[in-house]
Amino acid sequence: MKTRKLLAIVLTLALTLVLAAACGGNDQPDTSSGGPAPTAPPASPEPPGPSSPGSTPSNVPPEPPPPEARLLDTIVHQIGSQPIAVLNPLTPGSNSAPHHWAFVMMFDRLVEVDHWNNTVSPALATGWDISDNFTKFTFDLRDDVVFHNGAKFTAQDVADTIRMAMRPLETQGPSGEIRPFGTLARELWSVVMEANVLGEYRIELLLAEPDTDFIMDLGHTAGSILNMAAIVENDQTGPMIGTGAYKVVGFESNNSVEFLRNDDYWGVAPLTERQIWRFTPEMPVRTVMMQNGESHFAQSLPVTDTEAIFEPDPAYGIMSNLLGGGFGIFFNLNDPITGDVNFRKAVAAAVDRAPIGMFVEGGGRWAILEETGTFWGMRTRFRNNDIPIIPRDLDTAKAYLAESSYNGETVSMAAATIHQVQMANILQEQLREIGITISIDQMEMLAMNDLMAYGNNAGQMAVMMGQMKATANSSKGSLYPEAGNNKVNYNNPEVTALFDRAVVSTDQAERERLFKEIQVLVAEDLPVVMLYYRDNPIVFVSGLGGVVPPYESDGWDLRNAYVVVD
Known about the structure:
Elements: E1 74-78, H1 97-106, E2 111-114, E3 119-122, E4 125-130, E5 136-141, H2 155-165, E6 170-172, E7 178-180, H3 184-189, E8 192-199, E9 202-207, H4 214-217, H5 228-233, E10 246-252, E11 256-261, E12 274-278, H6 283-291, E13 297-299, H7 303-310, E14 316-319, E15 327-331, H8 341-350, H9 353-360, E16 367-369, H10 394-402, E17 410-415, H11 418-432, E18 437-442, H12 445-451, E19 461-465, H13 476-479, H14 493-502, H15 508-525, E20 528-534, E21 538-541, E22 544-545, E23 562-563
Parallel strand pairs: 1-12, 1-13, 17-18, 17-19
Antiparallel strand pairs: 2-3, 4-5, 5-9, 6-7, 8-9, 10-11, 11-12, 13-21, 14-21, 15-19, 15-20, 16-20, 22-23
Helix pairs in contact: 8-10, 9-11, 14-15
């Protein structure tokens, strides 16, 4: 990937590393809580896991601004194609990348995770002890942390957060039935059988089963620690109260968020006093705002503008941002038509990925086409690249369709963002070539997530983005029965049994074998046809620095962003 400039990175925490438990294998993270801190990450760090294809963002040693530099007091950020609807990590509506970026600003977690270097470092927890069988995690906590409302952070807040995340959430289905609604926070904490407060600043978490990825998962924004008293006092603004580097001082749902520096922050003080994040649905308007100096950091600009306007201009820089989840066609396996594997194979054999990437991504430079038959994150560990893809062959597609239950019905395809709608339009034409009639149903992202929620039989097909993260265990959230990201009603008892073994194994070689076997079985069931992975270029003004680039699409860290004034 060509990059005009490299972003300077300011690491907010020293990485203090000592092995907490020896599990063997190159895939095991360093999960220490003590030892000397390195001064900078390697110039070209190897991402964790045996296979991490795709372009990688520039990762350079931390470079704070010169001491004499004058910095802007306020930075404006265009947050891209998806708005921020709610600022509560415990709700289903908060599972999109911009929500996670905001949660990094507002909240802290027990640990910080650097997936580029496969390391875990202290945050709210100063140290921890992990039992040999990965079922007991004991954390010592900081004693100098306060929430934005002035309340002191203690171990009870961790226990309260777990309890709140585990509250049953329900939603009404299309026929009036009540069904469970999963959240990422619920999935993260669901493995915790007991949360025992051992003291004001010490807590013990007992897991129902071994989980070697648990310490890494705690670094995700789903592990954000909240203040229950604030939520009880005001269930609208209370969930916005965290211990993070920035406070929320203004929020307009689906429009904008205003952050103010937390001057009582326990960690490294942010360099910028105020950050304003705006959602502008019209892509050309985002371009104009960057040109006029109305924003300093923008995502999801028109690719043609990125290449023609900003890339040649030294006043701007371009940074890679690979969306590791990838875009695909998600099928409702409970629907009589899309639940037929022959119908799904017909779709897979009719799809031509190249023109989709070429059109949607403005020439294809920013699209990495899927070349395997796996449904797995681009940077998720233990990705099985040996699974063959179903090649485009219209005769084969028609043969599969003839064996299916499809009889000329119009099949709905849901899409939310402008990119998804563009993909759906091309897929509509491609599937027409083999005799499948598609109607495109454009809707808000929240509505589409509900439409394709586990247990809902209303949807048929959807163009969506996969939600698998860096850890292998995160795949369970997309393929396990009733999991929050299971958007296809997938329920294969054989796969479920393999997950039950894989997520508790402490043998890395066995974990790799099991997760790759899972991918083989899922590929045979074909609940999702992956299309491509988007490298979503970021445009920023010259002089911006302090942004930690993501290993995952939801991993942007803007807490220490700054802009040097010329």
